[in-house]
Give the backbone structure.
Amino acid sequence: MCLADDLTCLSRYDGLLALRLTPLGAWILGQTKTYTPAPPTYSLQVVSEQEIRLLDSGPADEATARLERFCIQKDDQSFSLDGGKALQAMEHGMSADEMREILIQGSGQELPARVAAFLTHMEQRAGLFRIAGPAFVVECSDPNVRNAVLGDAEMRSLCLPAGESALLVRKEDEEAFRACLHKLGYALPVG
């Protein structure tokens, strides 16, 4: 006897005869070649180089959810562009083009020159730094030994000075760094 023999159904989907496939679902399943998102249901006005005013926020405050990612909400109907918020949004994967698109689609017109310049400036500043990879800091209690390590040609390619008593080693160079330390007669504890 099976545990399910006494049940009238196994899940809430028993007896399901049909599903409604949205345009996004059809695109994901490969049934259509392209997907065009529905136009936003909100409207806004870019009042000045910093202020955005909501005219109609749409269902479930669609505009608020979009704008609060890169703007500071001043009150129920107005937002202010903010460099810090915009940079944080970019760190989390939002592009300046997405920000532009939200503002253009909501207002139905091109952005004022100062707003466009602000977003271009934020995009440039967000692109200056990148994480090159993991690294670790190795401390050396003897400044003479640290300087000798930094003076070795092979070791110089594997580490950089970090402060007064430390070396910075890329994680991918850890084995080579340890091997060179062994050649010089030193060891680095594991962990």
Summary: The radius of gyration is 28 Å.
